[in-house]
């Protein structure tokens, strides 16, 4: 596949998204815009870590790399008089003594889409194990959210927002808030009520052009994106990422070729062993036939005698 130019990338592309998040000047503002548009509320002080690594606790256990790991350091602040978003995005959902730990995962391509629920479960497990400090009570745990942003419909129902929470099967209407949720944001969704600013943000993230920067927040976002795309450091990093991908592809090609040759050798060895076994069988059959003939000759000789 032909590699796109840096200027052609959108905010669902890993490189541009991660570059924006990790930018010294714009990173936190960029993440704040995303969060406040998604959750329709103001956020306190944020700690933002792009490409947060959580290694497996043992060599044989799976680790994880979260695209954007962020933590709200203060209580959630809900501005008075702000209109609530629809469904899962209503204001003030966070308990006032918690704040939020969040992972944002842009998905520009359908990669193992069927395993998104399992990925969400694993990411939540990783985040939860780092959520509570020693000596703290369970009630002090922050709320958690894993957010997937996709240009494809993960569940085929046409919704722009799918919100997953824990429920009681026997009493689905009973409140059961363990502080975790997963949001799937489908950029082309049409069903369900959704805040217009969120709809505009998702459209802009999929097609990151000036034409889609249709409100003041998105115009600010677009200015940041354009500046980052024009920076020499971003261009160098993009070229390096391309070189790394080329090296990875070359390594995969070499490994594939090595495995092909090994498989060929194994097949050739198996073929030779089959041929050898066939030759042994033929020799055994020939020897058996020779013995049979000798027995016949012996019987004939004995009959004459």
Radius of gyration computed on alpha carbons: 31 Å
Largest sheet: 6 strands, mixed
**Strand content bin:** 5-15%
**How much helix is in the residues?**
40-55%
Summed up, the helix count is 6
Tell me the domain tally: 2
Strand order of the largest sheet: 1-2-3-4-6-5
Q: Could you give the order of the helices and strands?
A: HHEEEHEEEHHH
Strand segment tally: 6
Mean pLDDT across the residues is 81
- Structural class by helix and strand composition: alpha/beta
Uncertain segments of ≥5 residues (pLDDT<50)? 54-65, 76-97
Oligomer: single chain
Shape: elongated
State the end-to-end CA separation. Answer: 88 Å
Description of the structure:
It is a single chain. This protein is of the alpha/beta class and 305 residues long. It folds into 2 domains: 6-230; 232-305. It is built from 6 helices and 6 strands. The protein has helices spanning 14-22, 27-39, 116-129, 196-206, 216-230, 232-304, and strands at 46-54, 64-72, 100-106, 143-150, 161-164, 180-186. It has a 6-stranded mixed sheet with strand order 1-2-3-4-6-5, sandwiched between helices. Helix 3 links the parallel strand 3 and strand 4 (143-150). Helix 1 crosses helix 2. The radius of gyration is 31 Å and the shape is elongated. The termini are far apart. Mean pLDDT is 81; it is low at 54-65 and 76-97.
